Amino acid sequence: MKRTLMMGTVGVVLGAVLAFLLLLGFRLVGSASRSAEPAGQSFALKDMTTTSAFADGAEGAPVLAAAPAPSSPPMPVEMEEAVADSFAGAPGGGGKLRSANIDMKKTDRGGREEPNEAPAEGSAPSRAWFPETFLFEPLVVTDASGAATVPVRVPDRLTRWRVLALAHSRSGAQAGTVSGFAGTLPTYVDPVLPPFLRAGDSARLAVQVVNTTDAAVEAPLKVEAQGATVEGGSRTVRVPARGSVVEYVTVRAAGPGAVAVRATLGSADTVVRDFDVWPTGRPVVKQRGGTLAAPRTVSLEGPADAQAGSERVRLLVYPGALGVLRSELAAAGGREGAADVAYTLMLVGRSPELLAALGETQSAEALKALTSGSAKRMAMPPQPVEGVVDVEAMRKVLAQATQRALREGRAPDVSTAALLAEGALAHPDNVVLSRLGERLAAKVAAAQLPDGTCQGGDGWTLQRLLVATADCTRAVNAAAGTPEGKRRAALFTAKATGALERNRAHVKDGYTAAALLASGAVTGSLKDDLRTQVRDAVKTRDGGTAYLPVEAGVVDASGGTPSEAEATALAVLALEGDTKAPLADLGASLLSTYAPALGWGGGRANRLALRAVVSLFREPLPARVRVVLERDGQVITEGTYDAKALREVLALEAAAPGSGGAHAWTVRAEPAVPGLGFSLALAAAVPWKPESQGGLELVVKGPTEAKVGQPAEVVVEASTPSGLALELRHGLPAGVQVDPASLDALVAEGRVSSWDAEDGAVTLKLPPRGAGEPFQARFRVIPTLAGTLQGGASSLKVVSRPDLISYVPPTIWAVR
After folding, report:
1. Helices and strands: H and E segment counts in the chain
2. Are strands 296-302 and 546-547 parallel, antiparallel or unpaired?
3. What is the sign, positive or negative, of the torsion defined by CA atoms of 462, 467, 471, 473?
4. Measured between alpha carbons, how far is 792 from 812 in angstroms, rounded to an integer?
5. Do 347 and 337 lie in a common domain?
6. Of the chain's two ends, which shows fewer C-beta atoms within 10 Å, N or C?
7. What is the DSSP letter of 15?
8. pLDDT, tens digit, for every residue of 63-81?
9. Is the peptide bond prior to 671 cis by the omega test (within 30 degrees of 0)?
10. Do 728 and 791 lie in a common domain?
C-alpha cells in the first residue's frame, strides 16, 4: 500500500532578520500529507541550522525519526514492568533500544517505516504512520548562497504541523522562526480506538467520518480488524456538506496480542490504526543472562497454567564491554581515594585499546590523542556527539586525576605506590604521569625483602603477604618499558617467583592462587598447578554464569575482604589463554554484577575488572552478527546486528505458546562474540487468586454497571500493620479515567500521600498508619468506552518490603 502523499515546497518566512546577517533561502520539501495549505514560502537560514517539525500540541523533545510500533505487540504494562525490573542492572541497558522481529516492517535509514506496496487501482492509499514528531535535524549546513534542502516524509496524521527553525552563522549571528502547514483530505474516516483492551473485552468503538467539501457525500464504510472480530462493520453513510457523522461498531478481543483496525470510506480514504490486547492474568517472568562467546543453553520453566496467548519471550542483546566502558567513562572523576585515582588513570589510559577493538574508532583516536597530549591538535566536534566520547570532559577528568595522583604520590606507602604506579604507567606518552609511575615503581621495587616478598608487617598473615607480593610484582612489571625498568622488573620477578614457589603449599584458596597467576611471576609447572586450583575453585550459578568465591578469612593486600567481583576478575586474568577455563561465563558474571554508579564496588575491584574486560573483549567485533533464539531446537525469533547496531541494544520479542514446563532455550550468535551480553525473559500470565501476606488485607468495591461520561465511585479498604508506608495499585478497565479532583481531595485530607494514573491503573501512596487504624478511601472514575470490560487486579504492598504484597482479583464492568 503505497502512500501518494504529494505536496510542493513547505516554507517558512523568518520573522526576525538580524541587521548584520542576511538570511537567504532555506527550503523544507517533502512528500507531505495529502493536501496542505498553499506553500511557496521559504526559510532563510544560513550556515548551520537546527530544524524540527511536530504536530500542534505534541509534547516532549523532537526526535530524529519517530519509528512506527513494531509489528510484534509489546508486553502489557504489568509484564513490561516485571521484565524491566529483571533487566535493571544490565550493562549497556542505557543505550538505544531498537526492536527487531521476525516480521519487522520495512524502514528507511532514518528508522521510519517505508511506504507500503501500491494499492489496488481505484482504492484509497492507506494511512498508517502517525508519529507526533517526524523531523529533527540538529545540524544542517547551507551552501555558499545560504540555502539548504531537507527532504522529509510527512506522516499520515491529519492535523496542523508546526516547523521550528533556528540558525546561526559561523560568526555567531543567530535567528529563527516558527511556521506551519496543515495536512487534510476532502473526506476522511477516523476510528477512535482505546489505548488497550483486555482479552475477552467487548467494546463499542466510535468511527468518525468527516466531510470538508461543500457537497454532501454518500459512501460505503467498512471497518475490519486483524486480531479481533468486528460486529456491524459494513454500512453506507451519508455525511452533510462541511459536516461529520459518528458511527459505532463492536470489537471483541478474544486473546492477547496486537489488533489492527482498518477503516475504509469508499475510495476516499483508508486508515489503519492499532492497539494492544493485554492478558488478564497475573504476570510471571523467568529471566536468564550471559554472554554470546558460545551458544548458551539455559532452562526456563514456564507456568503450566499460563493463559492462552499470554506467553511471550524477549531477548535483549547488548554490547556488554562497550556499555560498561561508556558508563565508566561517563562516571570517571567522581570517585576519590588512592585506589579510585589509580583506577581512573588506568581507565582513561586503557580505553583507546578497548574502544578500537569494539569499533569505536573515532572515540579511540580522540582518547589516544588526549592521553598522548595531542588532543588540542585534533579537529574535534564543537559539542559532544552521541556515541562519541566527550574529549573535553575526559581532558578535565585526566587533569583532575593527575593532580590527585601527584598529591597521593608525594610520600606514599608501598601499597599506595603499587596502586598508583600501574595507573600512571598506562599513559606512556604523558611525561608527568610516566615519570610519576617510574618513581613509584622504583619505590615498590626497593621495598622487596631479601626473601623475595614485598611489604609485610606485624599481624600480617602469609596469605596477605603473598597477595601483596603479587600486587607489587604487577606494579614493577608495568614499568618495564625502559631498559632500566626492564632490568628492574626482571630482578624483582625472579626473587618474587622464588618466594612464591617456596610457599606454594600454603596457598589454600582460589583467590590467592588467582592473584599469584595474575602477577605474571609464576611460570611452568607452578603456573599449571595454580591454574588447576583456580579452575577447581570456580563455581557456576543457575543460568550459566561463573564466579570465584572468596573463602572465609581471605584478605587482599590492604587487609580488607575482597569482593566476589574482584575475585572473579582475578580469575579471568589468571586463566587467560587457558582453553579449559570458563572465561566467557566468568565474563558474564562480571557484566551482571556491574553497577553504573559504583562500577564493581571500589577502586581495587574496578582496576582488576577493567583489565579483565580488556582481556576478554579485546577481539574486534565483526561487521554483522546474526542472533538466534531457539526453544528445544526450534527457532523462535532471530535478528541481525550490523556494524552500527553493535553500538546499540537489540530487542527481539515473539510469542511463545507452549512454553509451560521446563524447556531448553538456546541463544547463539553467528559468529560467536564474547563482547555481547544477553538477557532472556519468558513472560506469561496466570489466573489471579486472592493472596494476602504480612498482615495486608485489601478489599476493592467498584461499580458493576456504569455509564459513559458519568462518574462512578470506587471504594478501597485495607487493614495493614502500623508504621509502614504502603503502595496501593488499582487496575482499571480500558477507557476508564480517574477524576483528579477526588484523588487530590484524598491527598488534602492526609489519607493519601500522592497518586499517579496511567493507562489501565491508578497508584496511591499511603502514609504510615497507627496501630489498629484501618484505611478507607473513595474516589471517582469516569468511563469513556462502552462495552463489557475487564479491570486489572489490585495490589497492596509495603514500600520498604516489595516482597510483602496482597492481591485482589479483577472484576468485570458493564459500561453503557
Report:
1. 15, 39
2. unpaired
3. positive
4. 9
5. yes
6. C
7. S
8. 222 223 333 444 555 555 5
9. yes
10. yes
